[in-house]
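The methods section describes the discrete structure representation at length, but only in general terms. Since the whole study asks how a given chain folds, the encoding of that fold should be made plain. An entry of this sort, consisting of the sequence and the corresponding backbone structure tokens, reads as follows:

. . .
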Amino acid sequence: MDISKIPIKDRKDEHILLTSTKNVESNESTWFEHIKFVHNSLPEINLDDIILSCDFLGKSISAPIIIGAMTGGTEVSKKINIFLAKAAEKYKIPMMVGSQRVILKHPETKDTFSTVRENAPSIPIVGNIGIAQVASSENFNYVEELIKNIDADALAIHLNVIQEVIQPEGDKIFAGAIKKIHDLKNQYSIPIIIKETGCGISREVAIKLVEIGIDAIDVSGVGGTSWVAVEYYRAKKQKSQSRMDLGKLFWDWGIPTAASIIEVNSVVKNNVSKIKVIGSGGIRSGFDIAKALRLGANYAAIARQFLIGSLEGQESVDQFIEKIMNELKITMLLTGSKDINELAKTPVVIESSLKNWVKQRGIEFE
């Protein structure tokens, strides 16, 4: 699919074009490079005996890998979602959909999301709505429509405050969001995932989320796609100098992914509610996934790499999944980890900026 040749009539298609063709990555790294695994020369296990499988929301999955939230609402996004859903079903890994808010105003777009469940009948699928929508809602009756649309196993509420305040269509209402999230969770029995969109989640925010009983936290830290960068390119096209200036200023705002995983894990690791942590933000390989899991994540989510693969076709998406699974297995072999639980305990050394961050934040890392 050559996205550059498709007429762009919708903001969501414009996002797909920009994230797949422009330099929208953060200039800052994930800080995964500051984590060094201690090599195990005598692992005493075979590569084929390594187990990647685990549970996600009560369902068995083949690996702790999630296709991250991306898109929906247009014909282009529908084609992308079909490729991704077929791959998720084939390899038995979870999938998040993009923001479903569009179906509330434009019901004709429902099939761009429902096609995910049609092509992935057995795997966990996560719905999606923004924090601005939640914060400004008088009631949450509309959430039932989002859940039914994809027969969702969970609902993600994405935190994209910085993007909202920069984009011209963005919402500016965020006060009272924590109470609203709590109210929404009380109204529905479905698991709630709170996910950032590229700026990371701090220990202080994680504490608030634990207090209201959130089921999972997706850190989505700095190091991957910068949605501020995406808005910068939109502002440039629209010749809005003020928004371009904001884009340049806040391009790299946030907490690096590695630091954010440690921050959140420091809060949830001893919590009786068993809140899960999803590491995301600049994860590009099975090696990165292994580092995220070692730092305290239970799963790792990837978005942009899957988006680019889906534009190339089904085979490209499938090959990418096989590639990262193999990379994860090899990393586990080289650390003597036969399963994910053992990988979480394997020796590592933390260096440089990440080491200083952990020390200054007063976090104990084991």
Notes: The mean pLDDT is 94. The radius of gyration is 20 Å.
